[in-house]
Write a structure and sequence with these properties.
128 residues, mainly beta, 4-stranded antiparallel sheet
């Protein structure tokens, strides 16, 4: 199964791989737990798996700050449990300490990696 995000909706797609279909896997859209956001654009641009904590990180390209012309990316840490009535649980949200000039010039991709030598983990964001 793979998870995908969409920049125009607060849903996460779950899509079966050829291997998952043999395990009664079903493609579906998972609703974000805050229903008040259902009609808004999410600006989601990336999702990556954190194997250390069995969680996922989801990047929002940018969100507007209190300063009118300053935009910053936002990262959610979430847990997905498909058997729960609310399958997505937001554990944390963190605004990235980097200013972007417009709302469409922010984080465009995301990857979680662990350095094999040191054992340190890093969350990498691809900036546009």
């Amino acid at each position: 199964m793979i998870f995908v995000v969409f920049d125009n909706t607060y849903h996460i797609g779950t899509f079966c791989t050829p291997f998952g279909q043999s395990f009664n896997c079903t493609d579906q859209l998972l609703a974000w737990p805050d229903a008040s956001l259902a009609t808004k654009d999410s600006q989601f641009e990336g999702i990556t798996y954190n194997s250390i904590n069995d969680t996922y990180f989801v990047a929002q390209e940018t969100i507007q700050t209190e300063m009118k012309e300053v935009f910053r990316a936002n990262i959610f840490e979430i847990r997905i449990i498909l058997t729960d009535s609310t399958p997505i649980r937001v554990l944390e949200s963190c605004i990235v300490n980097w200013d972007f000039p417009t709302d469409n010039k922010g984080i465009e991709g995301l990857e979680f990696v662990t350095h094999q030598g040191s054992g340190h983990s890093y969350l990498l964001g691809l900036c546009e």
